[in-house]
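Figure caption, in words: inputs first, then the predicted bound structure.
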Amino acid sequence: MRKLALGIIVAAVSVLSIAAQQPAAPAGCEPSWAFPAINGSLPAEEGPKSLPGSTKSYTPAQIDDLMNPPDWFPDEHAPAPALVQKGHGTAMACGACHLMSGEGHPESAGLTGFTAAYLMQQMADFKSGARKDAARMNAIAKDVSDEESKQVAEWFAALKPAAWTKVVEADTVPKTIVGQGRMRFLAPSGGTEPIGNRIITVPQDQNRARNRDPKSGFTAYVPWAASPKARRWWNQAAAERRSHAASVTATRPGDWATCRGWQDCTPSTSPGSCTCSRTARGTAWTRS
Ligand code: HEC
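Bound structure (heme C present):
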């Protein structure tokens, strides 16, 4: 996830740098994708909830109790330090937002795959204010002792990271809202819209995510231009432009002379008319 997250950030930066060469971005490019502002809500949940494979049952109020969150699969993790499951003071229970699998939700963070030392350092930085998350972690860390920080860090660091986020290249994505818990959901009204320059992450199963299912992951839709394939494509395009610079002036995809030999390319026999690029779009891959 760290690598994926870093890759997405790097990719997002490269999207900005190539944006000038892209067709005009559609509406919806305001930075709300990076700073989710709540702009909708899903109907309130009702009744006791259960999850596939779990013998437990919780009410929506219990599921959303940040001081005492659900533990759907208690047999599937090592006994957790008290603070993971029960909050005190301003230190809310870590397992609420970061889940009992440590994978977390997109609006918080995944804690698996880190060293205990890294996690402890973050807690110390949240506590001192060197790292800022005024909405949540600064207040939480204030009430976490060094000993507790060590215990929870060691527990989260020992969890095995899962394949949690599936990355899908897409031009068109479902319409979404940012609703309860600052989470992005599919808009109840349905419909689709251009992805623009956004990367958006939605639950693979909204109901399970709302129930804090520690096994139900997310889908990150990325614009084609932000994918690793696109970066290879652009690099290759740049190299081609260089090597043909003397004789070729056209630089756009679709121009036979520049796209000849590219990956994902269906070359045509006549110059000036190849269908190039993007033939492998829509491919999904998961992090490992
Ligand atoms: C109410 C929700 C909530 C609870 C409860 C919560 N966190 Fe967080 N946590 C967040 C959010 C949101 C972030 C992302 C902060 C940011 O990056 O600005 C975060 C980030 C973190 C990070 C940084 C991860 C990284 O990628 O660097 C650590 C470490 C962390 N939390 C540990 C904990 C621990 C330990 C507990 C329990 C004492 C806890 N959290 C409880 C919401 C929560």
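The pocket of heme C is lined by residues 66, 83, 91-94, 96-98, 107-109, 111, 119, 122-123, 133, 136-137, 140, 144, 152 (CB under 6 Å).
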